[in-house]
Amino acid sequence: MNKKITKIISLAENLIGTPYHYGASTSDQTSFDCSSFIQYIFKTGAEIELPRSAILQAGDEQGQEIDPSQPENFQPGDLLFMRGSQGHYRDEFFNDRPIDIGHVALFIGNDEIIHSAGGEKNKVIKESAKQFYKKINFVKRFII
Hints:
Blueprint lengths: L2 H12 L19 H13 L7 H6 L4 E3 L12 E4 L20 E7 L2 E6 L5 E6 L7 E6 L3
């Protein structure tokens, strides 16, 4: 596995349990929302600057789009985007395709993700990605 991906995953694992807070800043690692968590681990672990929101991360010119209907092709380090309870939806980033994105998670392999989850979970967690496979509508690979 690529050293940058290993570092990102290790950093993400070390942040498990960090509280969720919608709109959290990346400069304060005492809490994260889904996109600030991703922004922080990519900047700190791989020196990759990503935009602040999930929709902007998905629409960023960096990275390679991966077919979301084929989870067997997901690789550690891929970002999985899906509709969320909060978020922003802008079709113009995706050649006018109607893609709703309000949440992002880090795929770590073995059908697992790490993400900053709101709601009842309300913290950074590691869990099975399988429950999300039907909800994922966009996947991006930033490290090849």
